[in-house]
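A note from the maintainers: we've had questions about how concatenated examples are separated. There is no special marker in the raw files; a new sequence line simply starts the next protein. For clarity in this README we add a label.
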Amino acid sequence: MASADKVRVNQEIRASKVRVVEPDGSHDVVETDEALKRAREHDLDLVEIAPDANPPVCKVIDYGKYRYEEQKKEKRQRKRSKSMQMKELRFRPRTDDHDFNFKVDHARRFLDNGNKVKAYVQFRGRDIIYKDQGMDLLRRLIEELQDLAKIDQAPQMEGRRMVTILAPDKTK
């Protein structure tokens, strides 16, 4: 819709000469007034397709149909482009095996849906002395998910958290 609004039609075309593409596919360079006259003969509009070309390219088509086609094309593109979300998993340095496996299943589901996973180990108070346990936990998580994920960010400390980011791997 945004690109269709910027298109010049009929009298809005400013160039003195334009390359006109007729409905039958033939094209030639003519004065803008001549191009407008040809468009009126076919009961269609003169639509500027490529304004940056030298001379600008205009097509003799129905402008309403052209806008409709452009909107459909943009809608298809928006539908295809999927926005990726970041899902978070929080662990503690001494997270139990059952809880760990439960969260790994969640991470698998998130990755299967095409989302990134940000896993972090939260250190509170004196837990900060267990950084090695936190690193082992995140490495174990990465190992469990290596069949369907790739590492976006390796485990590293951010304040009192040890963070890693995993992204779905399209090749796997």
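[label: protein 2]
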Amino acid sequence: MTSPSTARVAGGPARDRLPVGTLLLLAAVVFAAVTTEVLPVGLLPQIAADLGVGEARVGWWVSAYAVVVALGALPVTALVARWPQRRVLLVLALVYAASNVLLVAGGSFWVGLAARVLAGLAHAAVFSVVVALAVGLSPPRRRGRAVALVSSGVGVALALGVPLGTAVGTAWGWRWGFVLTAVVLVVLAAATAVLLPRDAAPATADGGRSSVLGELRRPSLLVVAVVAVVLITGHQTVYTYVSPLLRDAGVGPADVALVLLGYGGASLLGLAVAGAVVDRAPLLALRTTVAALAVVLVLLAVATGSAPVTVVLVVAWGGVFGALPVLLQDAALDATDVPPAAPAVVNASFNVGITVGALAGGSLLAAGPPVLSVVGGGLVVAALALTTLVRRR
């Protein structure tokens, strides 16, 4: 589904072929953004030990980031929709890099928290920009594949970025993981300046604010938002504390990065499957994937104390979850006539879920990982029931 405004984002009418090179650049920006977002999860024990705070308190970094995105996704998207998208993407990459530098240089929990807030402001807009560009660049019948290609940055971040950052942080100190990510972001900012058109138009024809915020009145889009909030709350209740979960099952600290590598690799497979089916059977794919996630989380509670089974389930978890962002994004795009509104709503919904899930997981952590898995799985079952309200048009 494209509009004249999204055609202008692309710098011209939608063409028959996907602009793979530009979409890969957008995917690389997503990769760096998600690596910055998730890296504290992989390095949570090291950060807590170095700063002298509890692991649940370091979870505040995850929650603060998510709160900023949840509150800022729609208003920030409405604001930046009026500006040339090349400039917006370049600035966002540099803000991400600056947040990582501040995190490394700060040396305290509170400075780190401020750095995460800064990164959250960048994250509030980045998915709206890249998804709107991807949709505008692509023919309608390949919209799902274009979003899947851009979203591959999420899978690569989970498969490579976070495990590599975790391994570097474990071996050399947690700050080096963020240094490496900052360097990548500066390189991507330079690539954006060189490769994206200088005259890339605003994302919406009327300047963005009224059209993006006005979509909040659309019931079909709100249904997708509610599904995403409940689903991600269940996922994040467990995933925020996946390192303690793995250690509790008997996985050594040095092997956590390898398990996260398997999780990320499987997420790429899930993404590829989603990209192949999303344009043909989107609702069936969404409901099947949500059901599979519920099964995996419940089985994690049963697998307590078995390292091999827990590792297999975490990897399977990655494969299932890797498909969900594309499927939810497509459902949101189908529910609106303003493409930038869809990623903004999904982004906000994801981060409401991340915030609530991280807080819920932190409060339940003392009860043990099996309790986290049961609660998370129950919430995903509730999200599955809510998917019956999602309709295509």
